[in-house]
From TrEMBL:
Keywords noted in UniProt: Endoplasmic reticulum, Lipid metabolism, Membrane, NADP, Oxidoreductase, Sphingolipid metabolism, Transmembrane, Transmembrane helix
Broad EC category: oxidoreductase
Positions of the Ketoreductase domain: 37-223
Residues spanning the membrane: 6-25
Gene3D superfamilies: NAD(P)-binding Rossmann-like Domain (3.40.50.720)
Keyword Transmembrane helix attached: yes
Pathway recorded for this protein: Lipid metabolism; sphingolipid metabolism; Sphingolipid metabolism
This protein's name: 3-dehydrosphinganine reductase
EC number: 1.1.1.102
Length: 335
């Protein structure tokens, strides 16, 4: 009994350190207004992109330009954003998975209509869930095209412009990955792979553009209450639903606030919530961080490895239980 109490006290101490460290990092973050007059957001017609557009306008941006494929949804989003914020919103219908020449033409029009552009937030993306047997090669290609190549295409087009601008105020590039972009989950062989690719792209890009005074942020949002998430849940495997629920469901406004905060402060790996911070810390690898964050991670990664191991045990048991139930139903239906 005494040994058990001693173990529990240690676990409590570790938990206290983790929570205190997380709160310290959050408290140190600035929430300053945006010093840019023009911000470009891809995938801005709904979900996180639309919420981020509202957030940057509330922070003082004069103009937000939204890119998305569906012109009707863009018009609805512009009307909603203007009504709520009173800000200026330009919209352009563009397929970020299309050819670079088409994207370049739209970007030139974006600059011509909106002027100087210093902040680009890549929210264009899609999600799907299913086992590898239920996922076609076309589905894998689709996830890579939208989530990875779409981001690469836009970055290649906008980067020369960002490099030419005044470096006194650094330009910002923000990529939206996912918690599933740093850890694999059941049912996400297509989605996770496309989001993992963004991690390598972002780390390499950050090294290339830092000398030009450009900062890169890679955001890892959790499950977010958006129309696309609701649609995805209709066909999501039970295992995927149960595992995803451990991090909770966040509102897009909360996620958008975290994206803008971390983008303005030049944070490379960005997340929302305590679970998000835990995963970001344990998967930090060799990502660029501030000295303070590095110091905290040095002391927290060891204990957090145990916490993450507990998560993997829970995940494995959840998958095993679902498999057993499915097998039992299959056997029952055979008779």
């Amino acid at each position: 009994m005494e040994c058990e109490c001693h173990w529990l006290s240690r676990l409590f101490g570790v938990t206290l350190v983790i929570i205190t460290s997380w709160l310290y990092i959050r408290r140190k973050k600035l929430t300053s207004s945006i010093p840019y007059s023009h911000v470009l957001i891809t995938g801005g017609s709904s979900g996180i992109g639309k919420a981020t557009a509202k957030e940057v306008l509330k922070r003082g941006t004069s103009l937000v330009t939204l890119w998305a494929r569906n012109k009707g949804k863009l018009e609805d989003a512009r009307e909603e954003i203007i009504k709520e914020t009173g800000g200026r919103v330009n919209i352009f219908s563009v397929d970020v998975t299309g050819g670079l020449s088409g994207i370049h033409n739209v970007f030139e029009e974006t600059i011509r209509d909106g002027g100087d552009l210093r902040m680009v937030i890549h929210c264009a993306g899609s999600s799907m869930a299913g086992t590898i047997e239920d996922t076609s090669i076309e589905d894998y290609n689709c996830m890579m095209n939208i989530n990875y190549f779409g981001t690469v295409n836009v970055t290649k087009v906008v980067l020369p412009h960002l490099k030419k601008e005044n470096k006194e105020i650094p330009s910002r590039i923000t990529l939206i990955s996912s918690i599933a972009g740093v850890m694999g989950l059941y049912g996400f062989t297509a989605y996770s792979a496309s989001k993992f690719a963004l991690r390598g792209f972002a780390e390499s890009l950050e090294m290339e553009v830092r000398p030009h005074g450009i900062s890169v942020t890679l955001n890892l949002p959790p499950d977010t209450d958006t129309p696309s998430f609701a649609e995805e849940n209709k066909s999501k495997p039970l295992e995927t639903k149960l595992l995803s629920e451990t991090a909770g469901l966040f509102q897009p406004e909360t996620v958008a606030k975290g994206i803008v905060d971390d983008t303005l402060n030049g944070v490379f790996l960005s997340s929302v919530g305590l679970d998000g911070w835990l995963i970001r810390c344990i998967t930090c690898g060799m990502s660029p961080v501030s000295f303070g964050t590095m110091f905290l991670q040095t002391f927290c990664v060891g204990p957090l490895r145990f916490v993450s191991w507990c998560y993997t045990i829970y995940f494995a048991r959840t998958v095993a239980k679902c498999f057993a139930k499915r097998l039992k139903r299959s056997c029952s239906s055979a008779f």
